[in-house]
Specification:
The chain has 168 residues and is an alpha+beta fold. 29% of the residues lie in helices and 26% in strands.
């Protein structure tokens, strides 16, 4: 495979999510690479929004885990990103689109324990190789694409009632 071509895990085709439709609330957050001081702020803001909207605790917990992992991946590996939150009638969809180094082998990166963390990242407590697997595990739908030296787009959905859990 050419390193400049988009890559996706074989079992995760990039297609429009069924969680499309009327958007009840939408907000975009900018995440800056290497800004560890503000790491987790966007995830905390989304958690507060969902609490105000009276979302179920389990959905908020799962989204909070996925959002924090994705936000920290941007801070560690990308120059910057936009995180888009879309609240739909029956789901929450989050999309991260970053500008950065990209992921040359998504299948490898999706395996627990595989990490490209630097010694500095490890000194901060990161680098266990659980970020992307945790995002997928806490999502009802998950897709990722990446172009080396351009960036990565990650989209995941959590259904509010959990009825579609595991329907990936």
């Amino acid at each position: 495979m050419n390193a400049d071509e988009p890559t996706t895990p074989r079992d995760e085709p990039l297609e429009p999510h069924p969680a499309e439709g009327e958007v009840l609330y939408k907000e975009t957050f900018r995440i800056i690479g290497n800004d560890f001081e503000h790491g987790g702020e966007a995830a905390a803001r989304v958690k507060a929004i969902l609490k105000q909207l009276a979302f179920p605790t389990d959905a908020i917990r799962r989204l909070s885990i996925a959002n924090f992992e994705a936000e920290m991946n941007v801070i560690m590996y990308a120059d910057d990103a936009e995180m888009e939150l879309a609240v739909l009638p029956d789901a929450v969809r989050v999309t991260f689109a970053d500008h950065g180094q990209g992921i040359p082998d998504i299948a490898w990166a999706m395996q627990e324990g595989n990490s490209t963390a630097t010694p500095e990242m490890r000194a901060r407590g990161f680098g266990a190789g659980l970020g992307l697997p945790n995002i997928k595990r806490n999502s009802d739908e998950f897709s990722i694409s990446s172009i080396v030296s351009v960036g990565t787009t990650l989209c995941y959905v959590v259904y509010v009632n959990g009825s579609n859990r595991g329907a990936q």
